[in-house]
Amino acid sequence: MRFQILVLLTALAAAQNFPKPTGRVNDFANVIDAATEADIDRQLDLLEQKTTSEIAVATVESLNGMSVEEYANRLFKQWGVGQAKQDNGVLVVVAPNEREMRIEVGYGLEGVLPDGLAGQVIRDDFTPRFKEGDYSGGIRSGVTHLVEIVEKHQVLTPEEIAKLNASSGESIPYFIVIPFFGVFVTIGFSMLGLGLRTKTGFPVMFGGLFGGLPLLMSMAFMGRVSMWTLVPWGVLMFLNGYRLGGKPSWYNTFRDSGGDGGSGSSTGWTMGTSKGSGSGSYSSSSSSSSSSFGGGSSGGGGASGKW
């Protein structure tokens, strides 16, 4: 009983850390002048009348020890920005003392305002003026751009989103991305080479998918960098796998796994999968987890920035 009371009090204390909204523009940090606040409020009111989408602005004195991402996500949920059935809300959180901000995007607007575009708005409109101490000008410029994007309601194509993510200053560094994709390329193309040399179908299919799809994804995001690093590495791994497939130990291992009772002497193609394993257990696990997903007002989409 004591434990339950403690949990309840902790939850109530956490909830009290978040201020209650006073309108569309909530300048709790007192960094927006009155004229700018009135102008932004008019823009947001017109946007809501035209589209039903809601944009809320909150400047806060402190993030209360949380990351800006956690604070914005929790504040978004507590305020319930956007229409319940459409999830068409956007929350702009600015923390001048921590010099951090975030644009939190409702699930229904993630196609219109994807992470890369939100990050671009932060870099181009908000933070340049924040660096000069002009919070009123930065918030007016950034919110005006957000209003234009939401009002236009143009859902970006995957190619457009990829370009935004590739040009984003928040993109993961190449020294992390290249090794990450390199793991898939190494395993996939090695298996592809082994499968072709040993004439086993499963390694060919597995290797083509496991290595080929990540390689294509890396080329879409990194272009030339991937072309000059992962593509040559994939070719090298393929040749190495093909070479290993010619060794008796590797050849017999892949050929004997076909379940033919020692078919290593066979020269034709085989699937190369072990009996009673693989596809059966995979389909069982996938079907059991297919209905475990739910939904929410905000999928955590958006972008953060510092200055």
Give the topology, please.
Layout: H1 2-16, E1 25-27, H2 34-51, E2 54-59, H3 68-79, E3 89-95, E4 100-105, H4 115-130, H5 135-152, H6 158-167, H7 174-198, H8 201-222, H9 224-245, H10 248-256, H11 279-288, E5 301-306
Parallel strand pairs: 1-2, 2-3
Antiparallel strand pairs: 3-4, 4-5
Helix pairs in contact: 2-5, 4-5, 4-6, 7-8, 7-9, 7-10, 8-9
Describe the main β-sheet briefly. Answer: 5 strands, mixed
Q: What share of the residues does DSSP label as strand, in percent?
A: 5-15%
How large is the count of helical segments? Answer: 11
Helix content: 55-70%
Query: What structural category do the secondary elements indicate?
Result: alpha/beta
What order do the strands of the largest sheet run in, or round the barrel if closed? 1-2-3-4-5
Rg of Cα set: 27 Å
CATH fold-level topology of the largest domain: Diaminopimelate Epimerase, Chain A, domain 1
Count the strands? 5
Tell me the domain tally. 2
**Assigned CATH class of the largest domain:** Alpha Beta
What structural keywords apply?
307 residues; Diaminopimelate Epimerase, Chain A, domain 1; 5-stranded mixed sheet; 5 strands
Q: Can you describe this structure?
A:
Residues 257-265 and 273-296 have low confidence and may be disordered. The longest helix has 25 residues, at 174-198. The chain has a five-stranded mixed β-sheet with strand order 1-2-3-4-5. 34% of the residues are buried. α7 crosses α10 (248-256). It is an alpha/beta fold and 307 residues long. It has eleven helices and five strands, in the order αβαβαββααααααααβ. The protein folds into two domains: 18-167, Diaminopimelate Epimerase, Chain A, domain 1, CATH 3.10.310.50; 174-273, no CATH class.
